[in-house]
Amino acid sequence: MKKYKILLAVSLVAIGLMTALVASINEKKDEQEKLNQVPKVDRWETKNEEFRKHYPRQFDSWKETKKSDEIHDMLKEYPELVVLWAGYGFAKDYNAPRGHFYAVEDNRNTLRTGGPVDEKTGPMPTACWTCKSPDVPRIMAEDGDMEYYTGKWSKYGSDIINPIGCVDCHNPETMELQVNRKYLDEGLKAAGEKTLAEATQQDMRSMVCAQCHVEYYFAKTPLADGKSAAVVTLPWAEGTLVEDMEKYYDNMEFKDWTHKVSKTPMLKAQHPGWEMWKTGAHGKNNVSCADCHMPYVQEGGIKYTDHNIGNPLENMDKSCMNCHRVSEKSLLANINEKRERKNELHKKAMKALAAAHLEAGKAWEVGATEEEMAPILKDIRHAQWRWDYAVASHPSFFHAPEETLRILGTALGKAGDARIKLAKVLAKHGAGDYKAPEIKDKKQAQEIIGLPFEKLIEEKMKFRNGLMQEWKKEAEKKGVYNPKSTEGVEDKTSYN
Ligand code: HEC
Ligand code: HEC
Ligand code: HEC
Ligand code: HEC
Prior knowledge:
Blueprint: H1 2-36, H2 56-63, H3 74-77, H4 80-84, H5 103-109, H6 135-143, H7 145-148, H8 166-169, E1 170-171, E2 176-177, H9 182-191, H10 201-210, E3 217-222, E4 228-233, H11 242-251, E5 257-258, E6 265-266, H12 273-279, H13 281-284, H14 289-293, E7 296-299, E8 302-305, H15 316-319, H16 328-365, H17 370-392, H18 396-399, H19 401-428, H20 442-449, H21 453-465, H22 467-478
Antiparallel strand pairs: 1-2, 3-4, 5-6, 7-8
Helix pairs in contact: 16-17, 16-19, 17-19
The structure holds heme C (4 copies).
Residues 280-282, 285, 287, 291-292, 312, 316, 319-320, 322-324, 331, 334-335, 401 line the site of one heme C.
């Protein structure tokens, strides 16, 4: 009798468990089906929170990018950069990238965007917002591209307010991947690459990133009303290698700025991440940005895309080990070796360039002629462009290790050429014993180039406590901003 009772009890428990399991499977199935249906979200809904009710997993993982919140002051780590960028915004403030969640905040807080007092002041054009927010394609659609590209950065302070989010990569009506910034397709066409219309789903998994992680410049474009627009343009018409873009810029005699010390017409590389990726082992095999940065996650019966875009080395089991059979440890060791190889050449090139700028400054001071300096400035321009290209396309040492070392090698070569020529010019003008000072820290570097750091901070703080707060209130009134979305977020910067 006892035996039967036990058997009955066991069976009942088993049936109970089975029923629960079936119910759970059905529930998951329902949920998956619900997920597969596309709920109606407004075409230009840029408040990311509005997507949470429909796509909780994607939203919650997207919001995890908030955890990557460290400010890493690159000018403090490499004070030579202050000299390399003398006369240009980057000498004022430059941090390593952090989570997408901070894109708008960091853009407003950087000393590079200055301290505007109204919609017509400040050092930067509207184009500076372009890869920070889904409000950008919204404004482009509402105002037209040319209106968007006209005027000062401060013109859109109360419109461009939500950080990189759903509408940057998706059409919310279908949730398909979509690129809403026209310059990418124009760039692809100019380069003779596959256009967006020809892109496969796998291509799109990189293209959504390429709308921002690419090299670009602001092309000055005259408008009918006599005004001029600063239009984001990808310099790809000669191709997408570092030499191709150098040629493109040289042909049009383009410069981002004139170096304050050496008087070189300079180029600033932005972040040619997609172009570099293309030349590496993964790019050549079309392993997409999303394959590593947005791996699939299995949660119960549900499979979804991890939207916490960050460092794939933090979850190698999902981001690498589906494809690689060696151990995580040996892959990591391999990567660190690549990083060190890059750093060795990177630092050498950076120090050589800082010295070249200061030596050129001295040469002007002791009476060098334009004619003597022209070939030297050309070497400096090309050397720094190449060094910057290899370093700013973070982290190209991993995405494209050989190409990174090749480019740094040519940068070092050209910086060396400049300095040999400079030694001759300095000797000719009686300054053969000049030795450029060694750059020791950020403060000393700022003094060398005469940067009014304290004044910049003062202007910025006035802006942050004043106009910037007005922008947030206005944005809320316009219905494009939910202050809850940034509640409790600490406003971090490198300078206060
Ligand atoms: C930087 C680009 C990017 C952003 C920002 C982004 N997504 Fe995605 N999303 C992707 C990619 C890539 C995929 C994978 C698409 C594929 O290969 O089918 C994806 C897939 C999805 C899917 C399909 C189901 C799945 O998980 O694969 C949904 C739903 C989705 N995203 C919702 C969102 C929501 C909601 C937001 C905003 C909180 C968002 N996405 C922000 C790039 C992005
Ligand atoms: C709308 C423009 C835009 C799009 C689209 C975009 N990014 Fe970014 N990304 C940025 C900006 C801007 C930052 C720097 C944010 C900051 O520091 O405040 C950044 C930062 C990053 C970082 C550094 C994150 C960290 O925590 O350090 C990674 C990794 C990254 N992006 C990868 C990607 C990948 C992969 C895609 C495509 C799936 C993508 N991004 C799409 C603009 C974009
Ligand atoms: C094969 C995997 C893989 C692919 C494909 C890949 N990445 Fe990465 N990415 C990584 C790894 C690993 C790192 C971190 C390396 C490190 O330790 O610095 C990284 C770092 C980054 C960072 C720098 C973050 C920082 O804080 O400096 C950005 C930005 C980025 N990737 C963008 C992209 C874009 C855009 C693409 C596609 C064009 C792409 N990645 C393709 C693996 C990949
Ligand atoms: C979708 C598949 C896929 C994923 C995901 C992937 N890889 Fe790879 N990986 C490849 C392929 C394919 C190659 C090229 C192999 C060849 O050429 O024989 C490669 C090559 C490499 C190489 C050698 C080439 C080089 O650049 O030195 C390293 C190192 C590497 N992968 C590391 C990683 C790491 C780390 C991750 C995760 C962040 C990762 N891979 C994610 C497919 C992948």
